[in-house]
Design goal:
It holds the Pfam family Amidase. This protein is α/β, with parallel strands linked by helices and 469 residues long. The protein folds into 2 domains: 418 residues, Amidase signature (AS) enzymes (Alpha-Beta Complex), CATH 3.90.1300; 36 residues, no CATH class. 40% of the residues lie in helices and 12% in strands. The N terminus is likely disordered.
Length: 469
């Protein structure tokens, strides 16, 4: 009951402050590339940009997006001589509360770890962004232990989707604060993770860009694990070209740019599962986007891709996330289960019923399935699908409580359904917005198999240009 009351109070407080109208989620926000150009030409200063980001972070639209802020550190970085010559030029970056930052305690959205000692060093992802000139704004809110696509957290308050114009809506998760920080202007890059959609879901629901790279390309050390097999370190941005830069910095590799037009690529659209249960807004945006791309010369072909339908039976005995998270959490749960978000604890505890046979079989079946998918997609450069089948639902419909648990589980499953296909594929994917100005955000997902990252990024860049005309 206490969690329900806290959640209801949060919604009421937010609604009062905002009068159910949001001034953020502004499509006119400059991306990082544009801002760096303005820095080079003297039209702005890194210190001025940091003050704008701090103002956004302190606004009602960004409430609960950060669990810890480091504004003074960000100001100091922005004021460093020569900072604008670095790739990130002293501009604002947020860090999901999953990553080690030297001198800070990594809590992963939980109270269970609050007494842990501070990290002795930065995680590789944080260190790479720091060397590139990032001005870190602070640690962002997340679903406890990254185990949900909805974005709620009963311990620290849940950030509200800044694109809502009627009622408070969910931000999507698990990288919820990261998404809100980018959508409101509090950060140009939101560092996060993606195990089953945790970057692409909030990107889709908040009207921004989220790129999930091939998992092996960015080290996961120094990030609290959910699934050691599926976890991917990646980021949200305001544009595809910013996503390219963020990926290059995190993966320490150069993306091969292509000037080929969209018509040069062969794109598949999966009939199986990924177009099911689309709500009216997503369906309208999806069909309109496909028509726009075809008019622009895109080769878009519907394919059955029935292999996607096998995933439910492959995971019938349990998921990789359940099995692998239970290994990490078992002793913590035995000592302190009452301190967990019950919805998170129940998902982790499902791993307890999986046998070694179940787990090894799942790994083997996954590899067989990846091979089948590769054969089915041979000749295609990428696949298009809705990132998620629904727009962000109202928060009140998913508030904690037994009466709403069924609704929560249904929404969580819908949000994870399409993105998680790519994680099981060991693939890469980018979500970019495809809604019109009068619609709630809708994400278009461009995806492919492992190590096709550059192709996905180049195709997404072409699509973004077409949709923005």
């Amino acid at each position: 009951m206490k969690l329900v009351c806290c959640f209801a109070h949060q919604i009421a407080t937010w609604a009062t402050q905002q009068s159910l109208t949001i001034i953020a989620c502004d499509s006119m926000l400059s991306d990082l590339h544009t801002t760096r150009q303005r820095l080079r030409t003297g039209q702005t200063q890194a210190t001025s940009e940091i003050e704008r980001a701090i103002q956004a972070a302190q606004s009602p639209a960004c409430q609960h997006a950060f669990v810890q802020t480091t504004f003074d550190e960000a100001r100091a970085i922005a004021n460093t001589p020569g900072i604008q010559t670095k790739p990130l030029a002293g501009l604002a970056v947020s860090i999901k509360d999953l990553f080690d930052v030297a001198g800070q305690t990594t809590c992963a959205g939980s109270v269970v770890l609050k007494d842990n000692p501070p990290a002795e060093q930065d995680s590789p992802a944080v260190a790479r962004l720091r060397r590139a000139g990032a001005a870190f704004m602070g640690r962002t809110h997340m679903v406890e232990f990254a185990f949900s696509g909805v974005g709620t957290n009963p311990h620290f308050g849940t950030p509200v989707n800044p694109c809502s114009t009627d009622v408070p809506r969910i931000p999507g998760g698990s990288s919820s604060g990261a998404g809100v920080s980018v959508a409101t202007g509090a950060a140009f890059i939101g560092l996060g993770s993606d195990t089953g959609g945790s970057i692409r879901i909030p990107a889709a629901l908040n009207g921004i860009v989220g790129f999930k790279s091939t998992a092996r390309l960015v080290p996961t050390q120094g990030a609290l694990p959910l699934s050691t097999t599926l976890d991917t370190v990646c980021a949200m941005t305001r544009s595809v070209r910013d996503a390219m830069l963020a990926h290059e910095l995190l993966a320490q590799r150069q993306v091969t740019r292509s000037s080929a037009p969209l018509a040069a690529y062969r794109l598949a659209v999966a009939r199986t599962l990924m177009q099911d249960e689309l709500d009216d807004t997503v369906s309208r945006a999806w069909q309109r986007t496909l028509a726009t791309l075809r008019r622009a010369g895109a080769q878009v072909e519907e394919v059955n891709l029935t292999e996607i339908g096998q995933l439910q039976s492959i995971q019938a005995a349990g998921s990789l996330a359940a099995a692998e998270s239970y290994v990490w959490h078992r002793q913590l749960l035995e000592r302190n289960a009452a301190a967990y978000d019950p919805r998170v604890a129940s998902r982790i505890q499902r791993g307890a019923s999986m046998s070694a046979y179940d787990y090894i079989t799942l790994l083997r079946e996954r590899q067989r399935w990846i091979s089948q998918m590769a054969s089915a997609l041979q000749g295609f450069d990428a696949v298009l699908s809705p990132t998620v089948p629904i727009v962000a639902p109202p928060m009140a419909e998913l508030a904690p409580g037994l009466a709403r648990d069924a609704a929560f589980l249904r929404v969580n499953a819908l949000l994870l359904r399409n993105p998680s296909v790519v994680n099981m594929l060991d693939g890469c994917a980018l979500s970019l917005p495809c809604q019109t100005a009068d619609e709630l955000p809708v994400g278009l997902m461009v995806w492919a198999g492992a190590l096709r990252d550059d192709t996905v990024l180049n195709i997404a860049l072409q699509i973004e240009r077409i949709l923005q005309k």
